[in-house]
Amino acid sequence: MPNKIKKLAVLTSGGDSPGMNAAIRSVVRTCAYHKIECIAVYRGYEGLMEGDFKTMNARSVKDIINKGGTILKSARSDEFRTKEGRLKAFNKLNEANVDGLVVIGGDGTFTGALIFNQEYNFPVMGIPGTIDNDIFGTSHTLGFDTALNTVVEAIDKIRDTASSHNRLFFIEVMGRDVGHIALNTGIAGGAEEILIPEEDLGLDRLVDSLNRSKKSGKSSSIVIVAEGDKIGKNIFELKDYVDENMSGYDVRVSVLGHMQRGGSPSCFDRVLASRMGVKAVESLLEGESNFMVGLLNNKMELTPLEKAIKGKSKINLELLRVSDIMST
Amino acid sequence: MPNKIKKLAVLTSGGDSPGMNAAIRSVVRTCAYHKIECIAVYRGYEGLMEGDFKTMNARSVKDIINKGGTILKSARSDEFRTKEGRLKAFNKLNEANVDGLVVIGGDGTFTGALIFNQEYNFPVMGIPGTIDNDIFGTSHTLGFDTALNTVVEAIDKIRDTASSHNRLFFIEVMGRDVGHIALNTGIAGGAEEILIPEEDLGLDRLVDSLNRSKKSGKSSSIVIVAEGDKIGKNIFELKDYVDENMSGYDVRVSVLGHMQRGGSPSCFDRVLASRMGVKAVESLLEGESNFMVGLLNNKMELTPLEKAIKGKSKINLELLRVSDIMST
Amino acid sequence: MPNKIKKLAVLTSGGDSPGMNAAIRSVVRTCAYHKIECIAVYRGYEGLMEGDFKTMNARSVKDIINKGGTILKSARSDEFRTKEGRLKAFNKLNEANVDGLVVIGGDGTFTGALIFNQEYNFPVMGIPGTIDNDIFGTSHTLGFDTALNTVVEAIDKIRDTASSHNRLFFIEVMGRDVGHIALNTGIAGGAEEILIPEEDLGLDRLVDSLNRSKKSGKSSSIVIVAEGDKIGKNIFELKDYVDENMSGYDVRVSVLGHMQRGGSPSCFDRVLASRMGVKAVESLLEGESNFMVGLLNNKMELTPLEKAIKGKSKINLELLRVSDIMST
Amino acid sequence: MPNKIKKLAVLTSGGDSPGMNAAIRSVVRTCAYHKIECIAVYRGYEGLMEGDFKTMNARSVKDIINKGGTILKSARSDEFRTKEGRLKAFNKLNEANVDGLVVIGGDGTFTGALIFNQEYNFPVMGIPGTIDNDIFGTSHTLGFDTALNTVVEAIDKIRDTASSHNRLFFIEVMGRDVGHIALNTGIAGGAEEILIPEEDLGLDRLVDSLNRSKKSGKSSSIVIVAEGDKIGKNIFELKDYVDENMSGYDVRVSVLGHMQRGGSPSCFDRVLASRMGVKAVESLLEGESNFMVGLLNNKMELTPLEKAIKGKSKINLELLRVSDIMST
Fold first, then answer.
1. pLDDT tens for residues A42-61?
2. What is each CA distance from B233 to B30, B223, B239, D168, in whole angstroms?
3. Inter-chain touch B18–C165, beta carbons under 8 Å
4. What is the sign of the dihedral through the CA atoms of A258, A259, A264 and A269?
5. In degrees rounded to 5, what are phi and psi of residue A54?
6. What ipTM does the predicted assembly reach?
7. CB proximity under 8 Å: C 106-135 to D
8. CATH-assigned architecture of domain B2-143+265-310
């Protein structure tokens, strides 16, 4: 029964990412467009269990499309992992006459939504919001493109000082399990080597690569290291290794950190967020549930939440090769 | 005979766009990687006819990946449109022992390359570099993503002052024949209405839309106008029309202009340029000719130059609908 | 009687500028710090006459220090120029028990405040907020530094495309009566010539200068033109003049426009706004009235409003000379 | 004898800073303007001793005004601290017929220049280039303003994620001996507390301040910590302290690092660099020596190198107070 939905709720959960506000705005305005009521849930699943709700209209979300972070706040919730917690949430949604829920977040967020749906048959729809781009079923997660530009701008600045002093810099970027940020920003930042979680190239290759780069006349070098790189050493240990095993290098370390999560979203992320919000709401109105909306081949597509959670977002091997060639 | 190529040339032609330097760097480094010689041609086809060449190695292109414009300069050439002009170019390439040519530019550039190939059977490969995204055979041209961010940052600034004064702004963005920039930045900039060359929505709808927006409580409004909008009025005439036919508006005009062509390329454009350079050179080395490299479904693909020139790069109709819903 | 003040009001008026929100925040928080009540007045003197007030506390102004524009809106008011209008305003302030008024704006704003004070002996204090830096009694107005960076970023982008095509660009920047923006951004943007309202260098010198620049081997040129340049031609007429009287130039025009008024304020403007807000409130609390706070020799100083309005903010002649030398 | 100088040399030394290239450009162009020869020295005092020189003309420095770092490279030199080293340098300068030397750097750089002058009576002039603003005799060192903006943009991004998660962030900024960067960016970034080398406020006050901020309803907090803060704990120890001694905080640390040294210089730094280069060259031409050029009360002034080195660049106490009031 496609048109049973009269009122939707939207929340953000897990780590925040640029574009979440644009997605909230899109969900709210798409509801307004279809004359559906819409409420916002604060602090993710925590606020869902407590009934921390606010009625939204089209004007409630003005001037947020360009803001980083999430106006709805985000939080991790242990209680929502329990049966009792989810019952509370279900009761609060019922009391507020909410018929469907849009959750914006990463796989932890989707897992919660999936279990909640299985227990209460409550219609849910997911929007992938995380800078890591580690979700199956979408070529781009919300915030990924913005984070790439943030990282590249930082690398450009570091390169200014690196090349003024002929230094070697190890720069750590986000990515505990996947190397998307490292790989793309490494290419765009002109890095000599990129260390990612998917590949253990070994310290020997790193040393070889740096030596080759030096011989070829490069006066400074940048190595991008994903948080979860496979080489088994953290970025400070890498510095020590090079200090001890290679001569003639003035090695420095820079950990970019949480700055990568913030900032005004790029045009790409704002458009993507707007599209995803429309697709999520309209899919719920059409009677769909338990899906994540995603960008596949430049089109909005639905992927079952279960697949989105279990699937793997793979590194593009072509990019690895491009990176190798570029550091010639 | 795939491996006959020993020396390549690369040039940029037509309007410049961010990412051209990153593409030049990629062509040069891919040649170095495959131990192929590479020369740069200055000032597009003009320099080709004059033999304005420079030998490049991997180090010649350092520190340019993040620079806007093109270090090889660009120019339009009437002479290359003549048989005599192309003969000159062919002779210069022969004298320099060049076996293949990579051209970076738009459809004018590709047309020149195609005719040149047809006359002399000279291997050519195209890389689409233009901010307008108006080339068939690639979802993104080089520079398009950067231009989108440049425009959105300008809109954000204008919105600050628009909403401080409850003003209506008409903002003109590039796009003589296609509305890609207008459509994407209009959504991302939160515009009330977007006027593009592909669609004549008529002045009445514009007036309706502005009135509706005012009634709904919006205190300021932004209308994005592509240079070539179909409504048949330029942006200053639009202002006059609203001044005369609508009351209660303080209307201003802003023409963003050439600023949109410059700037340090985004991460996306740098990665795209790097991939395209690799693909262009390796395709020539594999014996291909007369193609344009492009991004289709996140993969590098070849499209015959003829198709790239004649084909149409179409507006995504889903975006038009998203734009309508967002301005609720 | 220094400590008679128990409640202050703050408003923004005239053209908006980056840093106005930071100044509002500072006024509100300084009131909170001194346990003084504070109300915000919306839409400048219009809102003052209508009693469009809102009580503010320290939390009311969170997250605005980095926002362009003014959350209090701005407007020009004809009615406040009349005796009746000012009486209305006085009555509204009395009804709300307001003892003093901080106005943020330019000389039009200060003139209104001065007359209001003269009629009702109502304590007023001015904060200079305008991007033009055209106020006597402060080395920097709020928003000037931010506007300089906005303009320079735009010039940098335009130079990318100018030098790719060997073009001559005329770029119009704000400054109807003073050339501060033109002069500073012209130096910082590497302009060949700078046309300002304070100086009529004559078309002949412009032509000479461009010819010299061309001979010296420059492949592209940028001329910065203040809106109110003395040469008596607008920027499009300048282009026509060069097109007709000089050969070998491909001339383009770019009018930067309202973009210059917006954007997140620079560090300098945020700190300046914070200092000015403190000084304005504390001066009122100390019994001062009818002054403008300003930055002189890196210190906060008071200048009588009358002087601020009548005085002239002069161009630094040293900068004119530096500009000449730099375009060698 | 004012006009004995026929040829100048310029070098950069010590840590690089944004604006150094603009200063090099200014030195070179001012020489060209006065028809004086000019050579560039690579790698600071190292290159001076080796004769690593390059003749410069006005065109040699095109397109560098907007580039971070230093095209002349920088290096620290132990050898120049020896008599033998300085003799080498003197001989190289003599061989090249150089009559005067402009050094761009910090107090280490100036100390070298001073001793060199004392030994050989060689005319030297200093330009203060360092982001720390720790030089006596100038209100602003080259690069300081740019670094402030870089830091504030990073804080803005971190605040997005901080306020989405109600977190407390400790952010480390540069400043081993002086708190200028911390103090200005702390105010501009809306920090709750600022820890600087000049002041030991003690852990108790930090704890108090955070508790007060929490009670007042703030949902997230940022504390800016200068590298050399007096509290005697590094930033990770601060985090541990709060984790152990305060409840209800989710504390994170971000070390901004070398990114702060790079980036395209702000308008302010480009203009300052242009003015300083002119003043340095013209002072040498007028027969002055052993001075540093500086900005005092918006004018170019000379300070004896000895004073510049020994003097103290003091924190503006007014800013400390403004910071306190703003975190109300």
1. 999 999 999 999 999 999 99
2. 47, 14, 10, 53
3. no
4. negative
5. -145, 130
6. 0.96
7. none
8. 3-Layer(aba) Sandwich (3.40)
